[in-house]
Amino acid sequence: MGLKGFVEGGIASIVAGCSTHPLDLIKVRMQLQGEGPSAVQPLRPAMAFPASSAHNIHLPPPPPPPPRVGPISVGIRIIQQDGAAALFSGVSATVLRQTLYSTTRMGLYDILKKKWTDPTTNNMPLTRKIVAGLIAGGIGAAVGNPADVAMVRMQADGRLPAAQRRNYKSVVDAISQMTKNEGVTSLWRGSSLTVNRAMLVTASQLASYDQVKEMILEKGLMKDGLGTHVTASFTAGFVAAVASNPVDVIKTRVMNMKVEAGKAPPYSGALDCAMKTIKAEGPMALYKGFIPTISRQGPFTVVLFVTLEQVRKLLKDSETS
């Protein structure tokens, strides 16, 4: 029975991940808007002479930040520059990520749910659902981090000038190049952020879905069918997006940073990245890409749970026949 939960969760996650991949790619591109030299205001030297001095030193004004564009504009730009197929850049990494990360978290959550469910009421308290989600999400993220790093880099590659692109051919090529050029530890770059985000997403997503579904059925608002599954899953997607977006922005930037030999990395860690982002772009920068995040998280969660319920029904029917 334990293995069945992994299979069901894995199938549903891969279907949901592939079908919403273009939205995820747009979200990553939007989260990286404003990053770079233009996002950090140059500091005036402490001993600089005033402009009215004899030398009349004139410092050039800092360049204005690039205009922020919405998800539709980002999508159109990607298609115009690289073609429609570019919307699926890094989809091989998505498949591997869902196979490792989501299969693990869904399977572990299912095991904990069965162990912690009250046999008399057939329900599990919300606090236990949240704890089960935190545990399952953390373990799943640690397993799937290499694929997550590869996916972020492959999705972000198209925003760079042609000379600076990494040009990974596939997720296998991305992982092998990272290992060769940056060491094995690069595969777990940003892993603390990935684990934190996964714990937040899994706890909010799975716990919210189960809780809302139970509430709908208990109050008799709808029957256990497609309407209930869609309502509960969209609510879960919104909760997960609100909870995870700030961590997701920092995770994306840390994973995507280019570390060159002999030079200090752009960010020394997650906290440094958060502080630099807020200082240069304001606190709301942590919610960059929220529209595509909810636009992706909503459909992803709906497809995930609707597919999961159908796969469960299919496997249950095959067992009884």
Give a brief rundown of this model.
The protein has 321 residues and is mainly α. It is built from ten helices and no strands.
Approximately how much helix is present in the residues?
A: 55-70%
Q: Would you tell me the structural class of the helices and strands? A: mainly alpha
Strand proportion, as a percent range, falls in under 5%
What is the end-to-end distance?
Answer: 17 Å
Question: Taking Cα atoms only, what radius of gyration do you get, to the nearest Å?
Answer: 22 Å
The number of distinct β-strands equals 0
Q: Spans of 5+ residues with little confidence (pLDDT < 50)? A: 37-54
SSE order, one letter for each helix or strand: HHHHHHHHHH
Number of helices: 10
Q: Biggest sheet, in brief?
A: none
Instruction: Specify the overall morphology.
Output: globular
What is the arithmetic mean of pLDDT? Answer: 83
What features would you highlight for this structure?
321 residues, 0% strand
